[in-house]
Amino acid sequence: MKLKGKFRKRKNLVICPICHLELSANDVNINGLVVCPVCGAVIEIIESEGQKIPVVHNVETKRPQPLFRLHTIATHFSIGLLPVAMLAQIWLFFARASGELLGNLDLLLPMCFLFLSIVLIGGILTFATGFVDWKRKYRGRNYEIITRKIRWSIVLFILLSFAIFLFWIELFGWSFLTQIFALGVIAKIGHLGGFLVFGK
Question: Is residue 11 pLDDT above 90, yes or no?
């Protein structure tokens, strides 16, 4: 009987015996080993009675660390600025609806556009610094969790670019809806990134 869907995917996962991070059996290298990205355990995945069992052979103790944590800084900057831009848009919407658009409140429109643009640029910086960390700290190893982060990051860039375009042509409602989806994607990427920091 063939396993389908999510169950088959989960059958391909193993748990690191040290930090309990979920690892994919697809992460193994040509020597049949996988180095846990969190704790550095060098694991061989063996199969016994249809079950995949992780066996720790060694621990990788020397792992280059980023000097300035640019990835973390860029990440939190983007995460923090998008809700600010969205709150400014909500404020602008209610101010216009109530007819109380006074003084410099009209400056909120270009300010929101500027914030969204900075979020996109910050996202690109986050991706670039994360890529450098992957190549340096994780030695460019093919971890499924990092592959998923990269795929979700591409989705995020598309959503943010589309939201900015919609804002530019003054389809503010659709732009705001797209930003909500982008915020959800940011949460997903952060959730995956949290595993690489804290394990599971």
Answer: no
